[in-house]
Amino acid sequence: MKIKKILVSQPKPSTSKSPYFELAEKNNVKIDFRPFIQVKGIDTKDFRKQKIDILDHSAVIFTSRTAIDHFFRICEETRVSVPDDMKYFCISEATAFYLQKYIVYRKRKIFYSTGKFPDLVEIIKKHKQETFLVPLSNIHKQEIPDLLDKAKIKYTKAILYRTVSSDLSDIKEINYDMLVFFSPSGIKSLFQNFPDFKQDNIVIASFGPATAKAVTEAGLRLDLKAPLPKAPSMTAALEMYIKEHNKK
Question: Which strands form 155-165's sheet, in the order they lie side by side?
C-alpha cells in the first residue's frame, strides 16, 4: 500500500517555505498537522510548593523559548522583579534573541551556544561562581541535570510548565497511511486518545532515540527511525522512505 496520507504530530508550519509542503508537492502526498501534545504553565500555587526563590539565583539557563515565556510569566505572577544584572545562558542564538520580548537585550549579560546542551555547559563552566536557575517542563531531557551535575554547577531545577496530551476527540479514527512522532509524550497521547489503536498497515516514523524507544515499548512497529546518516532531518528521512516505499 502506497503512502498517500501522512499525519505529523506537530503544529502546522507557520511559513509556506516549510520543507513539509515541498515534500508533499514533490511526492504527491497529503500531509496533515495536528499537535498530539500541548504545554500548560503551572500555577503560582504549584510553583510555591517547590520552595524556590528566584532571587537566590544569579543566572538562568534557557533551553527553549517556552522556558523563557514561563519564567517571565511566573516572575510577573509572583511579583518578582528580575534584577538587571541577572545573567542568561541560552541553548541557541535564536533563543537568546527571543529574550528581547522581555528585556532590553543590549544591556544584559547574555550567552548562547550552538543549539546543543553539552556545548552550552562548556560555556556555563566558565561561570561556576554563579548560582543557576533552570526552568523546565515536567518532562525534560535527563542530560540537562546529568551534565550540570557532572560539571559541578550550582543549580536549581524549576518546573514551570507541563507537557500534557492534546484532546483529539474530534478525530474519529486514524485514517492515515503514516504517523510521524517527535516525542515519547506523543506516543502516550496516541493511546490516551485512541486506547483501542491498532497499527495494522499504518507506517510509524519517529525522530530521536527516546521517541523510537517509546514506540517499541508501546508494542508498535517502528518503520522509520530518524535521523539517518544520509537524512539528518525528519523531512529528508520521510522523502527517502516515501520514494522507496511508493516504488513498490
Answer: 37-41, 155-165, 132-137, 59-62, 87-90, 109-112
Q: Is the pTM of this model over 0.70?
A: yes
Residues 24 and 48 in one domain: no
Domain tally, the chain: 2
Between the alpha carbon of residue 33 and those of residues 3, 163, 177, the distances in Å are 16, 18, 14
Per-chain mean pLDDT for the chain:
94
- The domain that contains 231 carries what CATH number? 3.40.50.10090
Residue 205: pLDDT above 90? yes
What is the C-alpha separation between 115 and 90, in angstroms, rounded? 9
pLDDT digits (tens, 9 = 90+) for 89-116: 999 999 999 999 998 877 789 999 999 9
Closest CA to 234 of 3, 13, 14, 23: 23
Alpha carbon 131 to its chain centroid, in Å, reads 25
| CA 70 remoteness from chain centre | 15
